[in-house]
Here is the input.
Amino acid sequence: MSFNIALSGINAINTELNTISHNIANAATFGFKSTRANFASMYAGTQPTGTQVSSYTQSLEIGGGVLTTGRSMDASIQGRGFFVTRDASGVEVYTRVGIFDTDKDGYVVDSFGRRVQGFATVPGTTTLGALGDLRVETGQVPAQATTSLRYVGNLSADWTTPTVAFDPTDPQTYNASIVSVVYDSLGVQHSLTQYFVKTGPNQVTVHYSFDGTELAGVTTPLNFDTNGWLLTPAAAVPLALGTPTGAAPLEIAVTYAGTTMTAGEATTSTNAADGYASGTFLGLQISSDGSVFAQYSNGVKQSIGTLAIATFPAENQLVQVSDTAWTTSAESGTALYSTPGSGVAGKLTPGALEQSNVDMTAELVSLMSAQRNYQANTKVISTQNEMMRALMQAV
Here is the structure.
């Protein structure tokens, strides 16, 4: 019986050595979580029969170090949860490795080609769309015509009123001017110039020109109260700018809310028009809330969705598979999907990766302990063998 007991010890230690060596081998693997082999004694009734590795404990709750990469499509999870991916067969696989990119069809994939799952963006709302494959159009983003222009500034109360009629070619006939870049429906860039002319103690009249041509008869009076706050216009002012060649008619709503008229230098704090030219897809960027933005050469950023984070009722019961990933088991429970930082799901650190949580010092100590235990079990077999030999010689 001693032979069998010692043999069970050797077999169990071999299994433990496999676990330790696997941990050591993955000390530099991103997103890897170490595992511990747990021993349990065995009995046949009341008769001891040795030991076995009865279970394994994963260290999913222990985070690895964070390596800053600076790459826009790298991300690490700080806390609980897993990125959700789907393999070629449609099976969901969960991982802590946040190395993402796009494939030839525009799908967001991880470093093993699995499609990353997330909540689609619903245009015009902050509501999350359905959970599924995240995909981006990798071609040209079409131009968008300018529809609004916002101007905020201080129009100096120290200005003097010009004594001659307004003439855009004569700077003596206006007090200040500012140029705004606008776009037509084809993405062609145009200039809209505003000329500010003081016409009274608390009044400024705005004249306009489009691509250097005055919009004759088109003016906007700005009236201020005695404290320098804008009274009118309170709403947006529509400007019809005509029809650029080959494009749709261009009309822009200009707002002046927040503009003041106080003493001192005239300043401009906001001169912002929407619209843009067409642009070429450059790449994707992940933000800390999990939003994935497509970046284009015209400076436009468009959200394509939000990364999903999966948590589980019993995450330590997940089953490890190849490519540093996990799948569900009956004991782990089904995945609970949320966005980064919501509920128990961890937040994201963009431009960084989670390193292995293997404690190399602890693994080497375990390795020495396993070696000592292995030698002790072989000594039992050797001693038992000597005793049997002595008995046989005595017979």
Notes: The chain has a mean pLDDT of 94. The first strand starts at residue 35 and ends at 44.
